[in-house]
Amino acid sequence: MVVKLDVSGVGMTSQRTRNRLTDRLREQGILSEAVLQVMASTPRHLFVDEALAHRAYEDTALPIGNSQTISQPYIVARMTELLFRDAQPESVLEVGTGSGYQTAILAQLVDQVFTVERISKLLDRALGRFRQLGLHQIKSKYDDGHLGWAEKGPFDAIIVTASPREVPSALLAQLAPGGRLIIPIGDPETQTLTMVERSSDGFDTTLVEPVRFVPLLGGKL
Ligand code: SAH
Question: Is 81 near ligand 1, meaning CB less than 6 Å away?
């Protein structure tokens, strides 16, 4: 039997439905056409269970198992746009692979993407999706992302898609000079999307906007 990969999508996963989502992101203030284009062409429905595929182009987080969620498209767009504003990072570290959707978006915009996930089941599924979509430039590691990925650093950009109370020091150490870290900081109820830039004499912090992410947890599962 030949299994046909439904990358193009029909009905609720069609290109028209996807364009409606990016139109909405534009209205919400996403300015980067490069980011919007990649989001319009990436099949988000392949990153959720088939039973939820019809909701994949709603601007909402959705469950992906193990009490985790695929991030809301607006947040993915916003975080990606912040990484690329006035910058062209060549290497990006992502902490929290989850479904792999954010990873797939990044992989279409930079040469090298490194991603770390602490739940092996989610990582295995994400890797299957990268293979399906031919995204071979993604390197992954099953580990606690608090540690970053020292052997592959320093990174021009680091994106964390789960929320710690404070910025993990290993991630700051692995940020290249001029590099940028985007991370939701706070407690489970109140978090602020935070941008940390490494300058010649230290770190500059900018608070971006309130967000809600699952917590950054320790250890492996
Ligand atoms: N970028 C993902 C977001 C998934 S939710 C997506 O769009 O699908 C956040 C993910 O971070 C979860 O998969 C969770 O398991 C992972 N995570 C939480 N703490 C972590 C840690 N310490 N190291 C690595 N991954 C972690």
Answer: no
97: helix, strand or coil:
coil
User: Ligand 1 centroid to 198 CA: how many Å?
Assistant: 24
What digits encode the pLDDT tens for the residues 102-148? 999 999 999 999 999 999 999 999 999 999 999 999 999 999 999 99
Ligand 1 within 6 A of CB of 170: no
- Express each pLDDT in 178-197 by its tens digit: 999 999 999 988 999 999 99
Residues 146 and 194: their CA atoms lie apart, in Å, by 16
Q: Answer whether 44 contacts ligand 1 (Cβ < 6 A).
A: no
Pairing between strand 138-142 and 112-117? parallel
Q: Report the CATH number that the domain containing residue 122 is assigned in CATH.
A: 3.40.50.150
Is 44 inside any structural domain?
A: no
Q: Is 163 a catalytic residue?
A: no
Q: 144 lies in which domain range?
A: 60-211
